[in-house]
Write a structure and sequence with these properties.
9% strand; elongated
């Protein structure tokens, strides 16, 4: 799963768990109302400051929005994002 897709799935799960609409979350996080939808659909990749705003608005640690993502260093080859196994 692509990084944007995994982030979007995590964001959607956390938002629904908090019982917030996309619009309510966007207001709390000071984001445009379409931004939350784009992030949840994996159409955008969140910047660090946006991740912090979203996490704070959801009352969760920012790392929770990054669950399931991992980076494998490349050594002498290119690195790549990978799915993280169950913790």
């Amino acid at each position: 799963m692509a990084v944007a897709d995994q982030f979007g799935a995590n964001l959607r799960y956390c938002r629904k768990r908090a019982r917030l609409s996309q619009e309510e979350l966007s207001v709390r996080a000071s984001l445009h109302r379409t931004a939350v939808g784009q992030l949840e659909r994996g159409e955008r990749v969140a910047r660090v400051d946006t991740t912090i705003k979203l996490a704070g608005s959801l009352g969760i640690p920012p790392g929770e929005l990054l669950d399931g993502m991992n980076w494998e260093p490349g050594g002498t080859r290119l690195g790549q994002f990978t799915e993280r196994g169950g913790d």
